[in-house]
Structures are given as structure tokens and as C-alpha cells.
């Protein structure tokens, strides 16, 4: 009887503890502004909210305001086209929010085709100007989708040529270009660059202090797994310029899938990474719940 009572008491205390913990992790119905701001400001990891994927029902500038309200120190976004750069620069300065990175060159046209290298150079010149305006030091570039009749080796060689061509421009303007490999199992079938190995080889061949990797842990998980092992290789080789994350499956925030991000974020921190980690994920339920799950993943 005594053993039963002790087990019952232990079970009730664990349940009570979980009940008390849940609001602090996954939100309450009425948080004060001060409570909301503590969500993103109290983490060891510095997170950058992807405002293309969070608060998609709001105007773009309001998404930046929501980022500040949740206490996150930075945003990231995709193409420059269609963005009011002076307004973004003014608002981020007013709110004390940084622009961690934006996309300077997307999937199409691919830089893996020499026919597009002039346009690629022009886009990088434009990105350097925009980055100064936004007080931003990083810009993502994408290799491109498969080209019929061209081998992967040839396409990668063309990517190296393109990056070597623009590297002096990036260096002159102190803008680091971060090359992002994708995954072809779920999101980007037919893309020419995926996995850490080929991307590290490209960056090492370009050999510029201002050409690195946008190391998206979501894509890496799907492509190759062993996140901590490969992350160690990337950071020790100094080829990583930026980290992004999302859980898998679903591409939602940490805590919704199979990745134990507490372990992965600790590994990055222990290896000396202090840059921003982009939250390129779609909130599963709502943004406050997603933010609390992100904060919970940063506990170790």
C-alpha cells in the first residue's frame, strides 16, 4: 500500500510539474508584452525569424514588428524584388532588429549555366548595395536546377566559376555570399546541389573569405542525417557562414518532428558558432506557440 501511495504521489507531482511548465513553453491566452518579448530574447542561440513564412497574413512590415514583439533579434527574408528597402531599413533600425540575411540569387535562372553569369554578377552588385542599406552582411545564393544534357560535375564547375567571378565584388563590399544546398527528396526535386560534401568542395575551391555555406539543417537532415557530425565538419573547415533550421517532417518549428534540436543547437554553440540561426519554418499552430517551441529547443 505504501509503495502504491508513493508511486501515486510521484505521478501526481510529475503531472503537476508538466502542467506548470506547459504555459511557459507553449503559450497562454493572455501574455503581457513583457512576457512575449522574453520568449525570443532569453535564448542562448540568436534566432532570425523568416518573415516570408511567419505571419503570412500580415503586411511585410507588420511581420517585422511582430518579430520585435516576440523578442527575436533579427529577421531574414527571400528576394529583394518587391521589397520597400528604405522602409525595412528604417523600421529595423527603429526596433533594434537586424536583417540577418536575404536572398540575392534564387533557383531560376541558375548560376550553374554560364549563359546566366552576367546576370548573376549584376544581381550581386545590386545585393551589395541593398545590403549596405539594410546593414546586412550575408546574402543567400542558390546554384540552380538541373540542366538537361549537363552532368552534375559540369554544373558544379559552372557554379564555382560564377562564384569566383563575383567573389572580389563581395569582398570589396564586405558582403558574404552563402551558398545553400537543397534536398531533392521532399522539396526540390531536380536541383543540382544537395548535401554538405559537394557544397563544401565548391566553397573550398572558390577560396574566398566572402563565400560560405547557408547550412540549412532541415535540408541536411533529409539529405544525409548525422546532423552533429556533419555540422562539426563544416564548422571546423570554416565553410559555414550561416545556419537555418526547421523540423522534419512538415518543415515546422522544432519540437514538431524527428530532430532533437536541443542537441544540435548545443553542438553548434559548443563548436563556437555565434551567428544567427534562421527560422525558415512554417509555424504549425500559431507564431507564439512556434516561438515558445523554438525557445524550448534552445534549452540544454
UniProtKB/TrEMBL annotation:
Its EC number is 5.3.1.22. It is an enzyme of class 5 (isomerase). The active site is at residues 180, 280. Gene3D superfamilies: Divalent-metal-dependent TIM barrel enzymes. Residues 65-288 form the Xylose isomerase-like TIM barrel domain. GO terms for molecular function: hydroxypyruvate isomerase activity. Keywords: Isomerase, Pyruvate, Signal. It comes from the Bacteria. Residues 1-18 form the signal peptide. Belongs to the hyi family. PANTHER family: ISOMERASE, XYLOSE ISOMERASE DOMAIN PROTEIN TIM BARREL. This is Hydroxypyruvate isomerase. It comes from Caulifigura coniformis. The gene is hyi_2.
Amino acid at each position: 500500500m505504501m509503495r502504491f501511495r508513493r508511486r501515486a504521489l510521484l505521478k501526481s507531482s510529475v503531472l503537476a510539474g508538466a502542467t506548470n511548465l506547459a504555459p511557459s513553453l507553449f503559450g497562454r491566452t493572455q501574455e503581457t508584452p513583457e512576457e512575449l518579448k522574453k520568449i525570443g530574447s532569453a535564448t542562448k542561440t540568436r534566432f532570425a525569424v523568416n518573415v516570408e513564412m511567419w505571419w503570412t497574413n500580415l503586411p511585410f512590415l507588420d511581420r517585422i514588428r511582430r518579430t520585435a514583439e516576440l523578442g527575436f533579434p533579427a529577421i531574414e527574408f527571400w528576394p529583394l524584388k518587391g521589397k520597400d528597402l528604405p522602409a525595412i531599413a528604417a523600421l529595423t533600425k527603429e526596433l533594434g532588429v537586424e536583417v540577418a540575411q536575404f536572398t540575392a540569387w534564387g533557383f531560376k535562372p541558375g548560376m550553374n549555366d554560364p549563359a546566366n553569369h552576367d546576370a548573376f554578377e549584376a544581381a550581386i552588385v545590386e545585393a551589395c548595395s541593398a545590403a549596405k542599406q539594410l546593414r546586412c552582411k550575408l546574402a543567400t545564393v542558390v546554384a540552380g536546377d538541373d540542366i538537361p544534357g549537363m552532368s552534375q560535375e559540369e554544373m558544379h564547375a559552372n557554379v564555382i566559376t560564377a562564384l569566383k567571378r563575383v567573389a572580389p565584388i563581395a569582398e570589396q563590399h564586405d558582403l558574404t555570399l552563402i551558398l545553400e544546398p537543397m534536398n531533392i527528396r521532399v522539396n526540390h526535386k531536380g536541383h543540382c546541389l544537395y548535401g554538405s560534401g559537394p557544397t563544401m568542395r565548391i566553397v573550398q575551391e572558390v577560396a574566398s573569405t566572402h563565400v560560405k555555406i547557408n547550412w540549412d539543417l532541415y535540408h541536411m537532415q533529409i539529405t544525409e542525417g548525422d546532423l552533429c557530425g556533419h555540422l562539426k565538419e563544416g564548422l571546423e573547415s570554416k565553410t559555414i557562414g550561416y545556419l537555418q533550421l526547421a523540423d522534419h517532417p512538415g518543415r515546422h518549428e522544432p519540437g514538431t518532428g524527428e530532430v532533437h534540436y536541443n542537441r544540435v543547437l548545443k553542438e553548434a554553440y559548443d563548436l563556437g558558432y555565434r551567428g544567427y540561426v534562421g527560422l525558415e519554418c512554417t509555424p504549425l499552430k500559431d507564431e507564439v506557440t512556434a516561438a515558445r517551441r523554438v525557445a524550448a529547443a534552445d534549452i540544454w
